[in-house]
Specification:
The protein is of the alpha/beta class and 119 residues long. Helices cover 26% and strands 34% of the residues. The chain has one helix and eight strands, in the order αββββββββ. Bound molecules: copper (II) ion. The site of copper (II) ion has 5 residues, from loops.
């Protein structure tokens, strides 16, 4: 992308091209800056998180629901969020304001792991 922009400028389009490109990059930034915040559900069933990885825009609230007949928790590796022990059909929600990769696990069954990727 950047390489293409450079060679275009070198082709001699000059100041007009630079101005045009400035406008183009501004509008694409504006478009990318409006992610649609939403709610995303992760189901806990049969000792696993489904889907195990969710990718969401910043500002999204993720809700975990325990559909298993065994208590589970949702605990982030970095202690960013931590649920209480959820019995069957109990829910836990967390709103992801900042971009990053948030790995988590069930503290009752540490082999249960999942990930939320916030963009
Ligand atoms: Cu568990």
């Amino acid at each position: 992308m950047r390489r293409r922009v450079c060679s275009f400028v070198l082709m001699g389009a000059g100041i007009a091209a630079v101005a045009f490109m400035g406008g183009a990059s501004r509008s694409s930034v504006a478009k990318a800056g409006q992610p649609q915040a939403a709610n995303v559900e992760v189901k806990i069933d049969n000792f696993s998180f489904g889907p195990a990885t969710v990718t969401v825009p910043a500002g999204t609230t993720v809700t975990w629901t325990n559909r298993d007949d065994i208590p589970h928790t949702v605990v982030s590796d970095d202690k960013v969020f931590k649920s209480k022990v959820m019995d069957t059909d109990e829910k836990f929600s967390f709103t992801f304001a900042k971009p990053g990769t948030y790995s988590y696990f069930c503290s009752v069954h540490p082999k249960m792991t999942g990930k939320v990727v916030v963009q």
